[in-house]
Design a protein that fits this description.
Length: 451
């Protein structure tokens, strides 16, 4: 909390870079009702960040069209992502009290700005989690996550040597845009950041084009998984699970998924739904056996490819726990080092789990000496993949339903955060409904309530 406050003050003192072409820091219409709230005065439910480990469902104002290419959505589906937990824990900086959360959502078009010609009220659409202008150097290549004109945060630019695109519900570090864990959402440049959903793809499938499917596919493709590869995946959450499925789609010979501790139950879920997967519970390894030694026992020389689908904030050993606690680092290098030492010489390691800053004790020597390829997969460029992935959903070659375990109402979203954070058994990927949602599609979970 203190770090977020400090970085907010620093950003305010320095000022933004000034090169975005869309309004910044619009994380809740209630911050400036006259400028951002619908003139009807209609209210909506929304989940907001109130501090470290504190999210609350509030009533706030429906957003309005602010810019000519805006689209206002009635949100019919959203979800929670492991990336949301980094905000919940305060790991991602520049959060402010009252920020509306959520970067994965779909809905029905409520209204459009005068410059939007390809989307009309009533259309069913899914939003990409990033906000792209559709015109800059990166957008022309469909590398939408790196749009040059939707995020003018100066601190990110200094830290990373460049910036990502703006992102929904993901702090002022990425532009400060209200998210989709709400009943309505404003989508800047809605003419390029929304994809129409056909009638044969229900929300319970189409929603996940917003992030998890695109992110998983990007991880697998960008790291170069190919036919005959042996792949090890760190993290059995929804991203790791879909990466495993997609590795087999790309022709991988073996896929080994690694997890443990409170999340070990996810290994059983992944194995049940993708039986070809092999699993490794690191908390059950005998004394003296490491993840690296076990993988190299399972496969001569180790896997060809390692995929990081966990994140850098989850330290296992006390050294990294203390260094993160004291601010000596922001991310642990433990999983990265396991990956580097586990793969074959000239093996490939892809990083998709979120890392936000700096790490210590990183095994740079192993990378150089053994020719390991370390690949930052980046925030996935959704626009590059989502049309093709939609076709795969339609023809059945991609089955997003294997990760879906629950359906909950937005009124219980705050409870969902606590349960998801605790790795409550059985909660893998969730569909969050609103008053605008259709009834559950055939074969998808019925409503769960914890009240």
């Amino acid at each position: 909390m203190a770090l977020s406050q400090a970085t907010n003050l620093v950003e305010k003192a320095m000022g933004h870079t000034g090169d975005a072409i869309t309004e910044q820091d619009m994380t809740n219409p209630d911050r400036n009702r006259e400028k951002y709230a619908d003139p009807s005065g209609e209210k909506m439910k929304a989940l907001v960040w109130m501090g470290k480990n504190d999210v609350q469902l509030v009533e706030t104002y429906k957003p309005k069209v602010v810019e000519d290419r805006d689209v206002i959505l009635k949100v019919t589906g959203s979800t929670i992502c492991g990336s949301d937990l980094h905000l919940y824990h305060g790991t991602v900086v520049e959060m402010q009290k009252g920020d509306i959360l959520g970067h994965e959502f779909c809905g029905k078009v409520d209204s459009v700005g005068p410059a939007v010609k390809n989307i009309k009220p009533g259309d069913r659409v899914v939003a990409s989690f990033q906000i792209a202008c559709g015109e800059c150097m990166y957008c022309q290549k469909k590398l939408s996550s790196q749009c040059e004109r939707t995020n003018e945060n100066k601190i990110e630019n200094i830290m990373y040597g460049g910036r990502t695109a703006g992102m929904f519900g993901y702090s002022h570090f990425t532009g400060g845009f209200a998210g989709g864990q709400a009943e309505y959402a404003r989508v800047p440049f809605g003419d390029v950041n929304l994809l129409k959903l056909p009638d044969d793809v229900p929300d319970e499938k189409g929603l996940y084009l917003s992030d998890v499917l695109s992110t998983s596919w990007n991880c697998v493709v960008d790291t170069g998984v190919k036919e005959g590869d042996v792949v090890a995946i760190w993290g059995a959450g929804p991203i790791g699970q879909m990466c495993a499925e997609m590795c087999f789609m790309r022709g991988a010979k073996r896929v080994i998924v690694i997890d443990g501790g409170p999340a070990a139950w996810r290994l059983d879920l992944v194995k049940e739904r993708t039986p070809k997967v092999e699993t490794l519970d690191y908390t059950k390894l005998p004394t003296g056996t490491t993840v690296t030694s076990k993988l190299q026992e399972m496969e001569h020389g180790g896997p060809d490819v390692a995929l990081e689908c966990a994140a850098g904030e989850y330290a296992k050993g006390w050294t990294h726990k203390l260094e993160i606690m004291t601010g000596a680092e922001t991310d642990t290098s433990e999983i990265l080092n396991e990956m580097i030492t586990s793969v074959k010489n000239f093996g490939r390691c892809g990083i998709t789990g979120v890392y936000v800053g700096f790490t210590n004790h990183f095994n740079i020597g192993a990378i150089m000496e053994r020719g390991i390829r370390l690949i930052g997969n980046g925030q996935a460029p959704v626009h590059l993949y989502w049309e093709d992935l939609l076709k795969k959903l339609q023809d059945g070659s991609l089955k997003s339903e294997i990760m879906l375990t629950h359906r909950v109402d937005i009124s219980e979203m705050d409870t969902l955060y606590r349960k998801f954070d605790a790795r409550a058994e059985g909660i893998q990927k969730v569909f969050v409904q609103t008053r605008f949602s259709d009834p559950p599609a055939p074969g998808t979970p019925e409503l769960t309530s914890w009240k």
